[in-house]
From TrEMBL:
InterPro entries cross-referenced by the UniProt entry: DNA-bd_dom_put_sf (IPR009061), MerR-type_HTH_dom (IPR000551), MerR_fam (IPR047057)
Source organism phylogeny: Bacteria, Bacillati, Actinomycetota, Coriobacteriia, Eggerthellales
Domain HTH merR-type: 1-69
The protein, known as: MerR family transcriptional regulator
GO molecular function annotations of the record: DNA binding; DNA-binding transcription factor activity
UniProtKB keywords: Coiled coil, DNA-binding
Superkingdom in the source lineage: Bacteria
Keyword Transferase: no
Coiled-coil regions, chain positions: 81-115
Amino acid sequence: MKIAEVSKRYGVSTDTLRYYERIGLLRHVPRNKSGIRDYDEASCNAVEFVKCMRDAGMSIESLVEYMELLEQGDETTAARKELLLRQGDEIRERIAGLERALARLEYKIEHYDEVMTATERTLRAGE
């Protein structure tokens, strides 16, 4: 699959895909005889994983570390798991913060509903 197709499929710009390859997030992307990238299933799976982790807020540095560990093989399984566990903790913290923000927002909306209702009653009473 050509880079433009991968870009469209995963919603990642071609520049970003090239950058990810350059910094080691996407390793071993096959090329055809002309030197043009020809993403195979494994490369597409890597793109999907990197995109998912970036969408989840994982830093480029952590992703590079993860991919380096992955490249080293099974002896790094525990380290990779620990890295993903830390990422999960960070996501849970962000979710908790968003839930607090949502609760505050809903409180303010309810407050304005009450203010608007009281204002309407006042206006009707003065007619």
